[in-house]
Amino acid sequence: MKLQKFYAFLFPVALIACGGADKPAEPKWVDLFNGKDINDWVVKIQHHEVGENFGNTFRVEDSIIKVRYDQYGDFNEQFGHLYYKQPFSHFHLKFEYRFVGKWSPTAPGYTFLNSGVMFHSQDPHTMPKEQDWPISVEMQLLGGLGDGKPRPTGNMCSPGTNVVYKGVLDPQHCIESSSQTYDGDQWVKGELIVLGDSLVTHIINGDTVLQYSKPQIGGGVVNRYDPAIKIDGKLLSSGFIALQSEGQEVDFRNIKILNLDAH
């Protein structure tokens, strides 16, 4: 579906009484990242308490959020996430990412040229120190391996969650998108349109590459969580947005959101 038609469906045309003219309601995009610091964000890294930015993992340079491991040594499964300070329910998120620099050789092999954006995540303050992944849904970001083989990006992965895909509750941890493969350190544009616990749409460089619905708590992969938080079968209608750190250096920029609850 073209985005113009999507918004026409969501937002009726507003009647401007003073002039008697019909004009579309103006979407109000808000920058989640101010280009200067991550004061509006919260860090949670496995083996560390919430708020501890171990090794300066998440840092800001040149109006970019950079994920780096130059102060780590052994990666030691220190999977991390950088959470925006407030939750969202219905929203359109835009961001850009690129894979750069090095991969930590002591990180698991699957993390090579791999990162993600989590949404409908549990509050990081509810995560025990040793929990690895947040209970959330992930828009997985992958880089091409330069071998000519397809490696789509904008996939769905589900730590501690499940989704309905093609009409059925899908047990797969990750569902591949239909995106192209992007090699090298080029910037790639990602978008998420999330309608609470209903429809979720993944967009890469302007193309819709995946849709599914009814995100809900369930499944495995997440470990050492508080059992009171993991209520299997509970639909996820809102939650936190987070940028992932799992062993591959990656950059994020131009992170902005349109809060669809406001329309």
Automatic annotation (TrEMBL):
InterPro entries in UniProt: AL/BT2_dom (IPR010496)
Organism: Chitinophaga silvatica
Tree of life domain: Bacteria
Occurrences of domain 3-keto-alpha-glucoside-1,2-lyase/3-keto-2-hydroxy-glucal hydratase (ranges): 28-257
Molecular function GO labels: hydrolase activity
Pfam families: 3keto-disac_hyd
Protein name: DUF1080 domain-containing protein
